[in-house]
Structure formats: C-alpha cells, structure tokens
C-alpha cells in the first residue's frame, strides 16, 4: 500500500471514529408543520395565571442548531403597536426546558389589557394579548371554560370561536388538553388528523412532540395568543384514568409509572403558561367578586377507583380524590374566602349523578366513587354556611347543570342543594353520538334523566354537542351559557348559544332561562 493510501486510510479511520453523538443531528418530527413566517417562534405565544398585578407570558424558540443556550428578549406594552413599551427584558432558554421561555411579568395594573412580544436575533414573535385580573363589578367577569381537546377528533372549533371573542377575561381549561394515545388509538380516522408521534407517548421527547403538534393547531395557537389561560390537568395529560400510583392506560411494559408521571408533569409545565410551583392546585383572586379555586384530582391524592358502588372498599377512609394535604388546603380556602363567588375548577363531576343507562349508572372515576371525601366537603359547606359556590367541571365530554347534592332523594328534597355545578362539554372529544347512537335516541335519554325521579337535581344535560361554556359572574348572578359548534369535523368558528342557566346570588339554584 502506498504511503498516500495509508494516510487516506488513517484519515478515514479518524473520521469514522469521530464521536458523532457529540453534535447529534436531531430530526424535528414537527418541522413539516411549521409556518415559515413564524420562524423561529413557530409555536406562537401564550399567557396565563393572571393576578391583579402580574401575568405569565410564554413562548418557545426553535433554534436552527442545537445550541446550549440562547438569549430571547421580550417586551410588554399597553398598546398593540408598542409605541410605549412599559417593561422589557431578556431570558436565557436552554434545551433543558425544550427552549421554552416563561416570564412572570410584575407591577401591572388590575383589569387591564396588555400586549407582549418576543424577539431572537432580530426575528419577532407574534404579538400576544393578555389581561390582568380585575376587581370591578361594573361589567360581568367572563370566563370561557373548556376541556377535552383531542387532535384526532377534528378541528378545534371551540378554541377558534373563543379566540374571536372580545369579552373574555380568561380561558379556564379543566384538563385533557392533550391525549396520550398513538395515531388512530382514540379518535375519528376520517378527519385526517393523526397523532404525532404515532405511538403512545411515554418518553420526554414523545410528550414534547405531542404538545408541539397540538400547539401548531391554528385555533389553539390563536386562542392562546388572544387570551390568558388558567389550566389544570385531568388524566390524559398523563394517561387514561390516571391516579396517584397508576393509570388504566399504563402497563408494566411501558416503564415505571412514577417516571412517566414526572415526565408528564415536566412537559406540562414547559408548555403551559402557568407559574412554576410545587403543586398545580392554586387560588386566583378576582377582587371581592370571585375566587377561582383550581383542584388537582389526578396527580397528588387520588387513590385507585373501585369498580362499582357495591365494592365495600368504597367506604374505606383511606380512599381519597384530593389527598389529605390538598383537602385541608381546599377546606381552608373555602372557609377563608372573602370573595362572593367561589368558582371550583374541578375535573370530574362533583355532584351525585345517575347516568341512567341499563348497564351504566354511576361513574366510579368521578366523585360518586369517592363519597367519604365528598361528604367532608359538603359538611364543611353546610357548617360554615358557605354560599355561592359554583363547581365547573370537564371530563365527561357532555354538558350538565346540577344543583349539588350527594343524596337527591332525601337530603336534597328536604334541604335543597349545597352549591351548583356546571359541566362543560368537550372541545371535540367523542361523546354519545360518536358511539353511533342517533341524536333522537340520545335526546330521549337526556329528557329521561333530567328533572327526573333518579336525578331531581339535574336541570340540563346534553350528551351530543361539542363546544365551550361561558361563565359570567356579577354581584347578582352566575350565568352559564353553552355554545356548540355546528360540526365536529368541518372547521367553523360560528357558534350559537344553545342553552343558558342562571344561579341568582345566594340561591344554590339552577334556573334554565333558554
Ligand atoms: Fe376527555
């Protein structure tokens, strides 16, 4: 072999031995979905957890190379043109948080609209709009309440419709912001919207990709851009029917559940515009008018559900939905609240509810499956004579208006309700007619269970439609309005108000108005 060949061989050997892991070329599984006009902030902007003087703003940088860190600047103004920048700053983003940026902007005025924007190397992000919490009672306080958005079930019409509203103070998301299933695992395969990655999400990369895919949806991106969010998780942010130590959709061959939970939590905090804190449950004040008490009914305290009401374990005092620490906190918040309306951000139905099917009556995953802890809460409400509690609930993919009781046949008949509960339907996740049942049959069932012998306290049920709930609060009343999309599969932002319920202050009643 000639010396030059030897040299060539040596060079080839050196190149072959280069540690290619050092600068891994990571394929971005979502790059084909990017709108190049938004570069490098393809995921837009978001804001959340407003108080009277602060709000969290969010973005995610997509650098061209895998940088160890990057410097992103931000600015906030009272006007959209940024003629008068009120605050600005810099933040270092790193791969450890998936290059997401969150700033808790302080020293703002209450009840004001602000605009914010990020920049990286001269490239600006979209302009976001947000609003701090107000305490005035001059105009109603309006929350859009949503839950259960599944990419595979079709367009996120409810998000698009809310994005266009000008009268919203904040959006409250009660969970199932994403779904963990792989492509075609749970959804409508005719919509052409398939989950990425294609498999069930387990690793940190999987969860990040899934959140990324959802946040590239234009309706979801726009509603985040236009309104601040309060978010809590339900089960699908981890896995179906999640509880403290396991989940229905977590199997042994999918690795350690606690590790998966920790990953799910980390990525949730990366992507949602909420304050970093030890626990997700928290309280937000809207002056004397309202206090928002957001609960975590999955992650910290929930023990495994029982299979049915006959299971003797249902009376086991060890079984909890909130867990001791959160329950103590919740009761203290209820007792200590100075606000008129106590709005409880709740994942699963709190009130007694008989679904009325021959094969399915009570949902053991809801509060009906955790009666002892519910009893403690109801006792506290009664003993302390706490009025004007409104539970807002997701999870069921259906709409509900309930006067809250655990015993509709005796206690409710004699003393009335403890509170009211308004359930929001899904943004688009399937409900009864997605199981192939005709609307007329479902309507007949809704009529059968509403204002009935089995549910005298159930004032409204809709098991067919998708959309959102608007909760409006004033000194005189809490008003719930359900808005439904004309189609689950065709993109549309046109939504009609289908039903209105009113709870006069001090009444614990649900009066159907429309
Ligand atoms: Fe759901």
- Rg from alpha-carbon coordinates: 24 Å
Q: Mean pLDDT score, rounded?
A: 94
Helix content: 10-25%
**Shape call:** globular
Structural class: alpha+beta
Quaternary structure of the protein: single chain
Task: Describe it.
The structure is a single chain. This protein has 514 residues and is of the alpha+beta class. The protein folds into 2 domains: 31-131, Purple acid phosphatase-like, N-terminal (Immunoglobulin-like); 141-512, Alkaline phosphatase D (PhoD) (Purple Acid Phosphatase, chain A, domain 2), CATH 3.60.21.70. The chain has 9 helices and 24 strands. A 10-stranded mixed sheet has the order 5-2-1-11-10-9-21-22-23-24. Helix 6 links the parallel strand 15 and strand 16. Helix 3 runs parallel beside helix 5 (257-271). The longest helix has 15 residues, at 257-271. It is globular, with a radius of gyration of 24 Å. The model is unreliable at 1-23 (pLDDT under 50). Fe (ii) ion is lined by residues 148, 176, 236, 395, 397, 429. The site of fe (ii) ion has 6 residues, from loops.
């Amino acid at each position: 072999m000639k010396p030059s060949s030897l040299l060539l061989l040596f060079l080839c050997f050196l190149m072959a031995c280069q540690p290619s892991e050092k600068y891994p070329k990571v394929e971005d599984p979502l790059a084909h979905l990017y709108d190049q006009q938004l570069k490098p902030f393809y995921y837009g902007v978001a804001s959340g957890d407003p108080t009277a003087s602060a709000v969290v703003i969010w973005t995610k940088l997509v650098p061209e190379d895998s940088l160890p860190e990057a410097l992103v600047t931000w600015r906030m103004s009272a006007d959209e043109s940024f003629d008068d920048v009120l605050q600005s700053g810099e933040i270092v983003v790193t791969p450890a948080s998936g290059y997401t940026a969150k700033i808790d902007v302080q020293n703002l005025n209450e009840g004001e609209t602000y605009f914010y924007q990020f920049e990286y190397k001269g490239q600006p992000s979209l302009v976001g709009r947000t609003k701090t919490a107000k305490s005035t009672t001059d105009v109603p306080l309006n929350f859009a309440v949503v839950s259960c958005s599944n990419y595979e079930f079709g367009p996120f019409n409810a998000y698009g419709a809310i994005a266009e509203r000008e009268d919203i103070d904040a959006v409250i998301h009660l969970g199932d912001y994403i779904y963990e299933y792989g492509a075609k695992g749970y959804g409508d395969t005719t919509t052409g919207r398939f989950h990425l990655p294609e498999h069930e999400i387990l690793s940190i990369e999987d969860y990040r990709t899934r959140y990324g895919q959802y946040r590239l949806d234009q309706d979801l991106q726009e509603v985040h851009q236009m309104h601040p969010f309060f978010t809590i998780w339900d089960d699908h942010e981890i896995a179906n029917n999640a509880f403290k130590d396991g989940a229905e959709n977590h199997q042994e061959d999918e690795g350690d559940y606690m590790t998966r939970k920790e990953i799910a939590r980390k990525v949730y905090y990366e992507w949602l515009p909420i304050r970093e804190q030890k626990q997700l449950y928290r309280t937000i004040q809207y002056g004397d008018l309202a206090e928002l008490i957001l609960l975590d009914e999955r992650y910290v305290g929930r023990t495994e559900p029982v299979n049915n009401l006959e299971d003797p374990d249902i009376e086991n005092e060890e079984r909890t939905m909130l867990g001791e620490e959160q329950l103590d906190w919740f009761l203290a918040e209820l007792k200590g609240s100075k606000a008129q309306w106590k709005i409880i951000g709740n994942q699963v139905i709190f009130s007694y509810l008989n679904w009325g099917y021959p094969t399915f009556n009570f949902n053991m995953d809801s509060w009906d499956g955790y009666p002892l802890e519910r009893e403690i809460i109801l006792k506290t409400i009664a003993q302390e004579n706490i009025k004007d509690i409104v539970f807002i609930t997701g999870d069921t993919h259906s709409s509900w208006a309930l006067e809250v009781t655990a015993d509709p046949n005796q206690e409710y008949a004699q003393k009335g309700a403890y509170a009211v509960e308004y359930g929001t339907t899904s943004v688009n996740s399937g409900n009864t007619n997605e199981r192939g049942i005709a609307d007329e049959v479902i309507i007949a069932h809704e009529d059968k269970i509403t204002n009935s012998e089995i549910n005298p306290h159930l004032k409204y049920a809709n098991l067919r439609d998708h959309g959102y709930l608007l909760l409006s609060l004033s000194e005189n009343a809490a008003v719930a309005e359900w808005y439904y999309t004309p189609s689950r599969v065709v993109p549309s932002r046109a939504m009609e108000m289908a039903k209105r319920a009113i709870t006069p202050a001090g009444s614990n009643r649900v009066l159907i108005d429309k």
